[in-house]
Amino acid sequence: MNTSHMARPSYNPIVTKALVLALAITASIEICAGTASQPALTVKQIMNVLVTPTTSKIWGATDLKTDTEWLQVEHAALGVMAAGNLLSSGGAGPGETELAAQADWQTFNNRMIAAARQILEAVAAKDEEALFAVGNNALYPPCESCHQKYQKR
């Protein structure tokens, strides 16, 4: 069989993001249900794979014209929520579960999840002004505060 003329599957960023989101939600459900004995990812991995790409999508969302563009922001907000569920238990790195037990960690994490819920409301209303306000006034502050307190430099 000559495979030189076979088309390679195209990369679809929406499908890839949906897969990552599905995996994160699955992991979150396992953690919440108590079926996972300990976190499988480090905090850095959760940040790099889930939080950074999803928050970047939210903060970069401007001039949204199509339902697909709004759907991408909705998926990003759901990804932030899934990441928050994972981060509520900390991570697999040394001392990360102990960090997650701290009141400030939980406060920052809960504020991040609450901001993601507000983003979902802005998306449902297709209100770009509200999306911008929530991103800057509700999502950014807990992220920045958590980084200042916990991020290793």
Computed Rg: 17 Å
The helix/strand order is: HHHHHH
Number of domains: 1
- Helices and strands: which structural class? mainly alpha
Terminal CA distance: 54 Å
Helical percentage: over 70%
Note the main sheet.
Answer: none
- Taken as a percent bin, the fraction of beta residues is under 5%
Query: How many β strands by DSSP?
Result: 0
**In one word, what is the shape?**
elongated
Count of individual helical segments:
6
- The parts where pLDDT drops under 50 for at least 5 residues are 1-11
Mean pLDDT: 86
Write the layout of secondary structure elements.
Blueprint: H1 13-33, H2 43-59, H3 67-87, H4 96-100, H5 103-124, H6 128-150
Brief overview, please?
With 153 residues, the protein is mainly alpha-helical. The chain is built from six helices and no strands.
